[in-house]
Write a structure and sequence with these properties.
Elements (H helix, E strand, L loop, with lengths): L3 E7 L7 H12 L4 E5 L19 H11 L3 E6 L8 H11 L12 E6 L7 H13 L9 E3 L14 H18 L8
Parallel strand pairs: 1-2, 1-3, 3-4, 4-5
């Protein structure tokens, strides 16, 4: 079977982001068939259609190329005010423009929302899913929320086995999902 290139997009820009820590744990559990790589969003200039010229910002071009070259997208997001962080919304906008040239279209996606709160960023998870479905991203129907994340790592930074089991099951479900869309994402 051909290796699948999966873009991993983390909505939190914080250095010690819980979302990035969970993403790293999931990447470590992924089967070799899935080559997962972070696609960074922190340096993307805010989307402004006036900058959409023959030479758009280099960061936009690099981001669009990275997403465009992927076979699927895995999102990890916190929740800010019952929605996704501004940097993640900006990345979605940058990738969906110029009109008719969206790099998201057809790439099988999934989202894990992570929060120190009890409901695991439920609101952000659904906002992100709604945006991606609108952009033609077939989203894994299995929802994944990780709440009380700060209590899931021990004092040495080791993730609890029960959460590793959850992530392992999720990555298997995502592998099955992306295999339903052979080659449609590029």
């Amino acid at each position: 079977m051909t290796q699948k290139k999966i873009a991993v997009v983390v909505g939190s820009l914080r250095k010690e982001s819980w979302n990035r820590k969970i993403a790293k744990e999931l990447i470590a559990l992924a089967p070799p068939i899935m080559k997962m790589e972070f696609v960074e969003i922190g340096d993307l200039p805010l989307y402004n259609e006036d900058l959409e010229t023959n030479t758009p910002p280099a960061a936009w071009t690099e981001f669009r190329s990275a997403i465009g070259a992927s076979d699927g997208i895995l999102f990890f997001t916190p929740e800010y005010n019952r929605t996704i962080p501004g940097a993640l919304k900006n990345a979605i906008d940058v990738g969906s423009r110029p009109y008719g040239s969206s790099v998201w279209q057809g790439k099988p996606g999934a989202v894990i929302s992570v929060s120190p709160g009890a409901i695991g960023a439920f609101g952000a998870n659904h906002v992100l899913r709604q945006s991606m479905v609108f952009l033609g991203v077939p989203m894994l129907p299995h929802e994944a929320y990780i709440g009380a994340v700060s209590s899931l790592f021990d004092e040495n930074g080791v993730l609890a086995d029960s959460t590793k089991g959850f992530l392992s099951k999720f990555v298997t479900q995502y592998e099955d999902w992306i295999n339903r869309f052979p080659g449609e994402g590029k």
